[in-house]
């Protein structure tokens, strides 16, 4: 399947193919939800999505994989080196790191704005020193680089049926919604890394602070005030999803099943957290495998239906024009716009 994707995308250089394969393996290993949704895209678009995810995953691992006890200077140096490699890759189309090589090629093929990658790297650098956010506005400032730009990077790959700038706010919002879902699911794990992404003023509104979160994490005991704060954060996140979802209809029809599936699966994290009693400080909530399979199957049906319709339109456009007029007893109305 990897060769089929690379062939369809017109990626022939052996070194570049190896770089894309590396990104695909990162997506398959770490981004289970993201990878599952990516399989619903046309094969020629998948390598670009793997490249975007692979680079983001690589940078995130530099920040997080060694844990809070790791030498901050070592992580900062590794992130600086990745940033330097990124700039060289964007300028010259190559990269010493496979993730940079594939990303630079994807940026060139799809005309992705370079500042989106620079904003992402700024957010990664913030994670080395910033351990919390006073307000939701402060958190949104961070998420512009860590999440919104991911949606904006994806937009040229997915394609749109409206001017791209019209769809951009929705793509950015969906990236933010996905990350907010992860923040809620990962409260305990992030706390162990020394970070709290839930805004301090939201927590304080329920009488919660970092110390109370730490107490609950360490003792395994529930606390009604924490549950109330988590429930409010869930409601906030659902509001972002509602604002983002209209943008799915602005995408190229062949891309909509993928993004709709990702939206349902990431939104399912919120359902899983609620069903588990908001016990995110004690264990990670997981979307049941059966639910994931059902959503993926529905996405596959939608994707196949879109491609069949596209194939029929292509065959009709290649056929000789049909005669029309009163002699045939009917007229032909314009086709309705598809909603998938």
TrEMBL record:
Top-rank taxon, per record: Bacteria
Pathway involvement of the protein, from the record: Carotenoid biosynthesis; phytoene biosynthesis
Region: Disordered, residue numbers: 312-340
Provenance organism: Streptomyces musisoli
Gene3D superfamilies: Farnesyl Diphosphate Synthase
PROSITE patterns in UniProt: SQUALEN_PHYTOEN_SYN_1 (PS01044), SQUALEN_PHYTOEN_SYN_2 (PS01045)
Name assigned to this protein: Phytoene/squalene synthase family protein
Alphabetic keyword roster: Transferase
